[in-house]
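Internal tracking record. Fields below are filled automatically when a chain is submitted to the structure queue. Please do not edit lines marked as system-generated. If the sequence contains nonstandard residues, flag them in the REMARKS field before resubmitting.
Queue: standard
Priority: normal
Entity type: single polypeptide chain
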Amino acid sequence: MSFHMEDWPQVSAFTYRLRGFSNKTAHHYMRSYQLALWRRVQNAYFANKDDLCIGSIKRNKKALDLVQEFIDMYKTKSNYAAIMHYIENSHDGNERVNYLDHDLKKFLSHNFESGNLNNTALILYSDHGSRFGMDRWSNQGDMEERLPFVSIFLPNSYIRQNSDKFKNLQRNAQQLTTPFDIHETIRELSCTNKPKKKQEIRAISLLNEIPINRTCQSIGLSIHYCVCDQNWEFLNPNEKFSVQSAEYVVAYLNKELSKAEDYCMPLKIKKINYVKQAKIGGDVFYKINFITMPNKAKYEAMVKFDPDEKKLLIKSTDSVSRLDAYGSQSKCLEKFPSSKKLTVDLRKFCLCKPMRKSKA
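SYSTEM-GENERATED OUTPUT FOLLOWS
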C-alpha cells in the first residue's frame, strides 16, 4: 500500500508547472484534501497572517497524524511505502521551523517505541537548505543551498542480515551522493530495482560502495551545484574584470528575457556585492553576486573562463541562483501563450511590464 502527501498543492513536486500523473500515483493520495485546505488558508498566507493551524490544530501535526493513521492501518496487513513532503514551516524562512519539533519528536518516538520501525526503513530529508537572506551570501550559505539534509534509519533486523551493506551506507556518508542514489536505494529496499547489464555511474544505491574517485563531472552534476574541492578567492568587485563579468551575466539574462520581451522588462546592474574565483577540475570559474534593477533582485551566477577564446561562458540560466523571493514579479508569464513555445524558465528573472501586471 502507498501514501503520498504534499502540504502545498500549489507548488507540489509533480504538479508545479507540470501536469501531475496520468494514472493514480498512490492508494492514498492526499491532494484533494490539501487543495481544499489551501483554499481555506491562502488569503491568510498572502496577508502574512497565517498561523499554520487548521482550527485549533497545527497543520504539521494533522499531516503527521494522517501518516500515523496510514501506518497503523496497514502495518499488520501489507507492505507499505509513505512519502510526505512538508515545506510550509520553512519555505519562506527558518523562523517557524521549531514549530515542528515537538510533533516530529512525538511521531518518531511513538513509532520507535511501538515497534513500527522494527522492519521499516525511515528517511528524513530536505530538498535544499536556506536559499534566501544574508546567510546565503556566506561560504556556509553556498553549502546550504547545495547540500540538503538527509538521514537514513535502517532497522536492526536488516543490519544483522546485511552488515556489509550497512557498512557501505556508513562509508558513503563521506562520499559524493545525489538524489539519484537515494532513489536507487529506495528501489533496492523495496525490491523494485532491476538487474543492470553494466555498473551505473549516475545512480548507485547507498547500500553499495560508491567510488571514492567519483566526481561531479562523471555523474553529470552541474559545476554550479558542485561543492567538491572548491577553494574560492575573493576579487575586488570594483575592478574592471569584475564589472565586465557582472555585465556579461546581465547581458546574457537580457538575451533570454528578450524571448518574452512583450512581457518582461530588461535588467541592469545596480550593485556588485562580490566576485570569487576558483580553479575546479583544471578550469577557472567565477562566482558573481550582484543586484539588478528594476526588479531589485539578488543573484549569484557561476561562469567559466575559456582560455582559448579568452572570454567568459555561462552554461544556462540554471547557472544563476536567485537569492531572494521573486513572488508575483513574474506572474504575467502565466499568460504567456503556449504557441510561442517558451523553453526557458524566466520566472526568477522576469519583472512584468506595467501593462502586463494589470492583465495578469
